[in-house]
From TrEMBL:
Residues 6-152 form the Glycosyltransferase 2-like domain. It comes from Nonomuraea roseola. It holds the Pfam family TarS_linker. The lineage of its organism: Bacteria, Bacillati, Actinomycetota, Actinomycetes, Streptosporangiales. Gene3D superfamilies: Spore Coat Polysaccharide Biosynthesis Protein SpsA, Chain A. InterPro entries: Glyco_trans_2-like, Nucleotide-diphossugar_trans, TarS/TarP_linker. Residues 230-318 form the TarS/TarP linker domain. This is Glycosyltransferase family 2 protein.
């Protein structure tokens, strides 16, 4: 009788995780008579080979255990097992990972129901394993590389129809020690008639081992660069130029290539740094389209462009600043606001532009309190000209509408401004802002219920408006009591989860307010 699914496991030094992996296979609700297990040990020295033999003896006829010398990666043993598979479907299981008990039964049932060639089951990261879960948000009988986050989930821990694999001769590239599953998975997805994703169950548990040996930490930068180039070359050969190819290659620029330009880059010898810079630059020259650039965050984009332009010194400086947490100047010109990262002034300015949604570098440096209210202070800007400033409160659950003139107005029913008029004095490297929020103004509203205000400063430059939260006040949260119309109000200055200033306003009983005032008077007398 033909098995429904052949489970392929490439094993090399994954104890003690291997035991849980194998236990999860023999516990599958699909039934052992519907499974074929092909395990290839590549010269384990941690007892993994003995553990495979133990399970083979416990479950006669279920396991086919093969042994070989270490080939340097999972590709060769996976191909060897694949050539012996007889199931209608094949499933690749990492030797350090494990399955949910119903995983194979559900996956096979979905493949048969939807007539799918590839089925993804929701994957969970364990022990800090970082992976993209966006594709698993919803069960969908059919997805494509164009209309889903599938390009971010190209590992081979999926169910593949074996007929598809054999018809197209799909195999893992054995010269790739890392990421060899990506060309295999990508081609299967390109060739598949239908791809389905299941989000109704935890199918696969991807485990980060304590020594992180399964996340490529021991693979050299140049080896990873070479393998990334192979992955991208494979994608380009399978998919014509356009948005579909961009969707796949954007993942590699965002993830694999960007990781080559993280802090570990600085630990390399200078010659190796130059080699990585040149290699990444060549891939950027070949595949980095305007469509991909537009969807990259600013720092990633600039790193790749520096590599493409061969500006290795500027790239080193940018990575060094990122490592040290050093800030960059915000440059304001007549046509925009820019982050002065290394390469600014050499590469086109628009690659450094700050937008309203990415203006995290624009910040108010100082916020202080006085007896009457709160005073906001200094905004770092370089080369600023004709900056318009407005200060408005943001009430929880409410927002502002922008007037086409560049000033701000509030839609009917929104909270009106409560700050005193803004003054702004321009300096060479900063904007000196004087914005006063009197405590008395916070009591002008009906206070039947407590209100929460999150003040924001709005700066408009070159027709772009930036919304800036105020930083929290130094020291612990404090409160003051103010009277208006015979009513007492407690005003508490605190901060939100992001460390921004938040103002809580609530009514206070007259008796409590009087007692509080008397206590403070007595303390001042004794001081």
């Amino acid at each position: 009788m033909q098995a429904d699914v052949s489970v392929i496991i490439a094993v090399y030094n994954t104890m003690p995780y291997l035991t849980e992996c194998l236990d999860s296979v023999v516990s599958q609700t699909i039934g052992l008579d519907r499974i074929q297990v092909l395990a290839v040990d590549g010269g384990s020295t941690d007892g993994g080979d003995k553990e495979l033999q133990r399970f083979a003896e416990l479950y006669p006829g279920l396991f086919t255990v093969l042994t070989q010398e270490n080939s340097g990666g999972p590709a060769q043993p996976s191909n060897r097992a694949l050539s012996m598979a007889t199931g209608r479907y094949v499933f690749f299981l990492g030797a350090g990972d494990h399955l949910g008990p119903e995983a194979l039964e559900r996956l096979v049932s979905a493949a048969d129901t939807y007539d799918s060639d590839v089925v993804l089951g929701r994957t969970i990261g364990v022990n800090g394993r970082n992976l993209s879960r966006a594709v698993y948000e919803h069960t969908r009988p059919e997805i494509t590389l164009d209309d889903s986050p599938l390009p971010w989930a190209l590992s081979n821990n999926k169910l593949f129809r074996r007929e598809l694999v054999e018809r197209h001769g799909l195999r893992f590239p054995e010269h790739m020690p890392v990421w060899s599953d990506q060309p295999f998975t990508l081609e299967a997805c390109v060739r598949a008639r239908r791809i389905s994703v299941l989000a109704d169950y935890d199918y696969y548990y991807a485990v980060r081992r304590d020594d992180a040996s399964n996340v490529g930490s021991s693979t050299s930068q140049l080896t990873r660069l070479r393998c990334a180039a192979e992955v991208m070359k494979s994608a380009a050969s399978l998919i014509e130029r356009g948005t579909r190819r961009d969707a796949v290659l954007r993942r590699h620029f965002t993830w694999e290539l960007s990781k080559l330009l993280d802090q570990d880059f600085l630990t390399l010898e200078r010659e190796r740094q130059d080699d990585v810079c040149a290699g990444v630059g060549a891939l950027a020259e070949a595949y980095l389209t305007p469509g991909i650039l537009a969807k990259l965050d600013r720092t990633r984009r600039v790193k790749l462009l520096l590599a493409q332009a061969g500006l290795a010194d500027e790239l080193r400086e940018l990575i060094r600043r990122e490592r040290d947490g050093a800030g960059s100047a915000v440059v304001v010109t007549g046509d925009g606001v820019y982050e002065a990262l290394p390469g600014f002034g050499t590469l086109p300015n628009h690659h450094f532009a700050l937008t309203g949604s990415a203006a995290g570098l624009l910040r108010v440096d100082d916020v202080v309190r006085d007896e009457d209210g709160i005073l906001a202070g200094r905004l770092p800007l370089v080369g600023a000209s004709s900056v318009r400033v407005a200060f408005l409160p943001v009430r929880k659950g409410r927002s502002q509408d922008e007037d086409i003139t560049g000033c701000y107005k509030l839609a009917e029913g929104h909270v009106p401004p409560f700050a005193e008029p803004v003054s702004a004095e321009q300096h060479d490297d900063h904007l000196a802002i004087k914005v006063h929020v009197p405590y008395a103004s916070l009591t002008k509203r009906r206070a039947d219920r407590a209100k929460i205000f999150v003040p924001r400063l709005y700066v408009r430059v070159a027709n772009v408006t930036y919304q800036l939260p105020l930083p929290q006040l130094p020291g612990p949260s404090t409160s003051v009591v103010r009277w208006r119309g015979g009513k007492a109000f407690r005003i508490t200055l605190g901060d939100d989860a992001q460390g921004n200033l938040k103002i809580f306003v609530s009514r206070m009983s007259r008796l409590k307010a009087i007692r509080r005032a008397l206590r403070r008077t007595r303390r001042r007398r004794h001081a």
